[in-house]
Design brief:
- It is a single chain.
- This protein is α/β, with parallel strands linked by helices.
- It has helices at 55-62, 83-90, 98-101, 168-183, 202-205, 209-215, and strands spanning 14-17, 21-28, 33-40, 46-49, 67-71, 93-96, 110-111, 117-120, 123-129, 138-143, 149-154, 157-158, 161-162, 191-194, 200-201.
- Helix 1 runs parallel beside helix 2.
- The protein is globular and about 50 Å long.
- It has a seven-stranded mixed beta sheet with strand order 1-2-3-4-5-6-7. A six-stranded mixed beta sheet has the order 8-9-10-11-14-15.
Length: 217
C-alpha cells in the first residue's frame, strides 16, 4: 500500500518501505503525537523516535527484539510519556540533546549534538539542532542513498509553520535555524515527518517562509 502519513490515534501504523529502512508512523496519546519506528531492512536493528505515549502499542509495533535506541526530539512531556516503559522493557539506549536531557524521566545515554550521527543498523540519522521550541529541540535527517531526504522534525516544523515558541526571540531563533539548517541545506523533495499531525514536504512549505516571518509565528 502507498504511504500517506495520515494516521489516527487507535488506528494502525502507516508503513513506508525504503530500500534500507522501513519507517512506521503511529499516532498515540491524547495529544495525537506521532511516534516513528525506523528499522534497518538488513540487520533488523531499530530506532524509535519519541516514545510519546501508549507504551503497549509502541512495544507491539516493535514486534520482538531489535530496538537499539530511543531518541527524544525535545523535553516536552507529551513526547516521552512512554519512554521509561519502553526502555525498561527493551534495554534500549536513550538519546537526546543535552540542553533538554535533564527534563526527561530517565537518564540519557547518548548526547544528540548538532551534526552527530545515530546508527540505525547499516544506515544513520544526522542530528539537526533547531533552537527555539525548546533549547534542545532536534530534528533527525535520513539521506536515502536511493532516493530523497527524510526529516523527522519533532515540534520544530509542521505543515504551515514552525513550532510554538514562548517569545519573539525564540521564534526568530527557531525560524532562523529552520531556514538555514533545513531549507538552506535540503531540497524540495525532502519529506517532513512532524511530531503531530500529517506529513509535508519542504517544497510545499518553502514558498510560505516569508509569510511565517512576517506574521511572527
Amino acid at each position: 500500500m502507498t504511504y500517506s502519513g495520515d494516521t489516527s490515534v487507535g488506528g494502525p501504523a502507516d508503513v513506508r518501505e525504503l530500500p534500507a529502512l522501513t519507517i512506521s508512523k503511529l499516532a498515540v496519546g491524547p495529544m495525537h503525537n506521532n511516534a516513528y519506528l525506523l528499522r534497518c531492512t538488513r540487520t533488523g536493528d531499530a530506532v524509535l523516535i519519541d516514545a510519546a505515549d501508549e507504551g503497549d502499542r509502541l512495544l507491539d509495533l516493535l514486534d520482538g527484539e531489535g530496538l537499539t535506541r530511543v531518541v527524544t526530539t525535545h523535553r516536552h512531556g507529551d513526547h516521552w510519556q512512554a519512554l521509561a516503559e519502553v526502555v525498561g522493557a527493551t534495554g534500549a539506549r536513550t538519546v537526546a540533546h543535552p540542553l533538554d536531557a535533564e527534563a526527561l524521566p530517565v537518564s540519557v545515554d547518548e548526547a544528540a549534538e548538532h551534526g552527530s550521527t545515530i546508527p540505525v543498523g547499516d544506515s544513520a540519522l544526522t542530528v539537526v539542532h533547531l533552537r527555539g521550541h525548546t533549547p534542545g529541540s532536534i530534528a533527525l535527517r535520513y539521506d536515502d542513498p536511493a532516493g530523497h531526504t527524510h526529516l523527522f522534525t519533532g515540534d520544530s516544523l509542521f505543515p504551515g509553520g514552525v513550532g510554538k515558541t514562548g517569545s519573539d526571540a525564540d521564534f526568530r531563533s527557531l525560524l532562523d535555524d529552520v531556514e538555514r539548517r533545513v531549507f538552506g541545506e535540503l531540497g524540495d523533495d525532502t519529506w517532513v515527518y512532524p511530531g503531530h499531525g500529517k506529513d509535508t514536504t519542504l517544497g510545499a512549505e518553502r514558498p510560505q517562509l516569508p509569510d511565517w516571518r512576517e506574521r511572527g509565528w
